[in-house]
Amino acid sequence: MGVIDTPPGLGSALDRRLQAQLDSLRERSLYRVRRAVTGGHAVRMIVDGRPVLNFCANDYLGLATDARVIEAARRAFAVSGVGSTGSALISGHNVEHRALEDEIADFLGCPRALLFSTGFTTNVGVIKALLGRGDVVVADELNHASLIDGARASGAEYLRVPHANVEAYAQALAQAAAQGRDAMLITDGLFSMDGDIADLPALAALTQASGAALMVDDAHGFGVLGVGGRGTPDMLGVRPDVHVVTLGKSLGSAGGIVAGSETLIEYLIQRARSWVFSTAPPPALAAAARESLRILRGEPEHRARLIANMARFIDGARERGLPIAERGVATPIQPVIVGDEDRALALSRGLMERGYWVAAIRPPTVPRGTARLRITLSAAHEFAQIDGLLDALRELLGASSPAVAA
């Protein structure tokens, strides 16, 4: 066969345009790079060939490398193979998927649940299925990117509310109600970059009064907050119309789950395109998540250790005068906001040199002027490791200008 010639200049013109944008990202300290992990993704890791302590993952209960979870996946691989080989409506729906959905629904106290391949595709698929032109989305400005993308792709009018501003929510919902339009209020439960919690009781009251639906993405609260780790809605006594959790954080596996009424789940099975047209997740990942859920339900000591570690970090940061936020409820996400992108990168590099992996989070992940170190805590951390990180932070922050308090 002959070689197919590329039209003259087409590829090079695209490359030139893209290279200019890459150069701009580098100049503004917004360029991102991947680090390669050797072996397990745990607290002690080998990153780019060097040992470090991991303080930037979302493995809140330390289950991603738990031997029992690994063994559950291994057994499922032996029985079910590597891939599901088709979408759930064709040939991909395995008994492990169904069992996981049933067990998550029972844990959350919902009639039904539906498993998606990722948390991102869960949010995009659900929002696009439930909303369309003529409808209204009322959403927090700091919602996860998947919620933002799903809302924009739905074609509904997108009303962006200042972060945690209940009055702004009330005004937006009143506007939609006055126009007789269907509306959905969408929010994170535990915000992934700031570590604060949505005022779900107030938001639930607003949606009930206006006739709007409430969707909560509790990816980071699930397994951590609430009775037995049932999440932010449980902790605050709220039952969302649409309740999203993920399996790749506290449960240490991968995938997304939406829970709700029988009618909601049946409708999504028919209409959520990111579910209908995606290959179902490998059954072994569902088996691993089921084992993690069993551990979560039966071994409260994991959450107890996480809570103790959160207290150790918060108390230690205050004792050392480090700039962390004062919150009514402790969470495992503890940002140190420094503002400037260059400084955030320098601090992250300084910590890595000292053996601590803490990512520098910069725009567009967070608003401009709020670049930060996003520190996350796990049940698998030891007090000595947390104290060492705090001492390194004090040393590095003391050697530069003061950080901005969150």
Describe this structure in words.
- The protein has 406 residues and is of the alpha/beta class.
- The protein folds into two domains: 31-60 and 300-398, Aspartate Aminotransferase, domain 1, CATH 3.90.1150.10; 67-298, Type I PLP-dependent aspartate aminotransferase-like (Major domain) (Aspartate Aminotransferase, domain 2, 3-Layer(aba) Sandwich).
- The protein has helices at 10-27, 67-80, 88-92, 95-108, 119-130, 145-154, 166-178, 200-210, 232-236, 262-271, 273-276, 283-298, 301-319, 341-353, 383-398; strands at residues 37-38, 44-47, 50-54, 112-116, 136-140, 157-161, 183-188, 213-217, 242-246, 256-260, 333-339, 356-357, 360-361, 371-376.
- The strands form three sheets. It has a seven-stranded mixed β-sheet, sandwiched between helices.
- Helix 9 (232-236) links the parallel strand 8 (213-217) and strand 9 (242-246).
- The longest helix is centred in the C-terminal third of the chain and has 19 residues, at 301-319.
- The radius of gyration is 22 Å and the shape is globular.
- The protein starts with 9 loop residues before the first helix and ends in an 8-residue tail after the last helix.
- The model is unreliable at 401-406 (pLDDT under 50).
